[in-house]
User: What shape does this take?
Amino acid sequence: MVVLRLARGGAKKRPFYHIVAANKRSPRDGRNIERLGYFNPTATGGESRLELNMERVDYWVSQGAQPSDRVKTLIKDMKKGPEAVAAARTKKAEKLAKKRAEAKAKKAQSESSEEAQASEAQTSEEG
Assistant: This one.
């Protein structure tokens, strides 16, 4: 059975994936039938994050190849277009930054209240 999946490349802590059509029994980074594109999750600046030959992907899917879960999402992202994906990523980053700021404020508030309680306890012990 043919599957569309990611084959890892790149250095340690710097992942880079090739999107390949491979036999299900072959190892993740082993022999593949065809290289269909690449995915660079750590792309910054002018680097391209995703490149896929959609004609070949459609061909393999029509032949019965099963894409992995991650490859399915990458195919959807490719169909949406790079602008829509970039907008979604920035929106997600803003939401995460807001959530972190709220957590930081809550932590600071709880620490200040603990300090106030400790100082009250200390003054009551002295008196």
